[in-house]
Amino acid sequence: MKIMVCGKGGTGKTALTVLMAKVLTGKYRVYIVDSDESNILLPKLLGVNPPTPLIEYIGGKMDEEELERREIDITKILAKTGSGVRLSSLPNEYISYSKENIGLITIGKVREYGEGCACPFNILTRIVLKNLVLEDDEVVLVDTDAGIEHVGRRVEETVDCLVIIVDPTAESLHSAVLLRDIASNLGKRYWIIANKVTPRVWAIIKREAEKLKVKIDGAVRFDDDLYESVLLGEAIKSTIALEDVEKILKNIMLI
After folding, report:
1. 190 contacts 160 by C-beta, under 8 angstroms
2. 19, 26 in Cβ contact below 8 A?
3. How far apart are CA 163 and CA 46, in angstroms?
4. Is residue 200 over pLDDT 60?
5. With contact defined as beta carbons under 8 Å apart, do 78 and 57 qualify?
6. pLDDT higher than 90, residue 37
7. What's the N-to-C CA distance of the chain in angstroms?
8. Mind giving me the DSSP string for the chain?
9. What value does the mean pLDDT take over residues 135-161?
10. pLDDT higher than 60, residue 141
């Protein structure tokens, strides 16, 4: 199963992706594909060293037209032998494992002034996910870049379902409407999760979501321990948010 975690920048996608991965390890072999070209926090929250970006495995960053044209060749490079891409078969330097045996794969990062847009990273993400071969006990969580750039590169069509994260902002709710409609039009399952919730904020989120005809499928309470980890860039510590994520995944029958 391939699960995209998406939403406006700053909603807490990366932190919730890590928490979801920790919960899902009770039932699945879990991989995280980091497709956010700017955020460097994910390895720190997972407690691993950053793997070598996958873009380097295929020869480095190239323009999007060349990537599109070379999709078959790139798939063969990633697959190594046989048909389809298996994350567990990647060379060791391109995948890092946490103490819970969660595998982390990074697509690529923008690192230099003037190096160009992040489009190639989204295209490579789509190629990887489109050609990915998973066993029944494997789950891939895709931590997307902020906002909706991945929409323009059709990454959504390569996953099985979407987890759309909103926070206490009007912008995140409006982004959720767009992502919900895209998921619905593609025939994908989706769930909308409210993050960083306090009792007062939760009442407002529900009211504003109702105005937009947005169904909130679960809420994750604001967790001081979690955001201390995020602020310090340390392996994630959480009790409250982890409990909420586990409850949500049970309710939507992912565990």
Report:
1. no
2. no
3. 19
4. yes
5. yes
6. no
7. 12
8. -EEEEEBSTTS-HHHHHHHHHHHHTTTSEEEEEE--SS---HHHHHTSPPPPPHHHHTTS---HHHHHHTHHHHHHHHH-SSSSB-GGGS-GGG-EE-TT--EEEE-----STT---SHHHHHHHHHHHHTB---TTEEEEEEPPSBTHHHHTTGGGGSSEEEEEE-SSHHHHHHHHHHHHHHHHTT-EEEEEEEEE-HHHHHHHHHHHHHTTPPP-EEEE--HHHHHHHHHT-S---SHHHHHHHHHHHHTT--
9. 79
10. yes
What would the two tokens of residue 25 be? 């390890």
What pLDDT, on the 0 to 100 scale, is given for residue 112? 57
Q: What is the mean pLDDT of the chain?
A: 89
Domain that holds residue 86: 2-251
**This prediction's pTM:** 0.92
Q: Are 122 and 109 in contact (CB under 8 A)?
A: no
The yes-or-no verdict on residue 120 having pLDDT over 70 is yes
Q: What is the CATH number of the domain that holds 160?
A: 3.40.50.300
* Spatial distance between the Cα atoms of 36 and 106, rounded to a whole number of angstroms: 8
Distance in angstroms (rounded) separating the CA atoms of residues 102 and 248? 20
Virtual torsion, Cα 8, 11, 14, 34, nearest 10 deg = 0
- Name the most confidently modeled range: 4-8, 18-22, 35-39, 80-84: 18-22
In angstroms, the Cα distances linking 177 to 63, 77, 195, 208, 245 are: 31, 37, 16, 12, 22
Structure tokens at 209: 């979501």
Residues written for the chain: 255
Where do we find the tokens 């295209």? 123
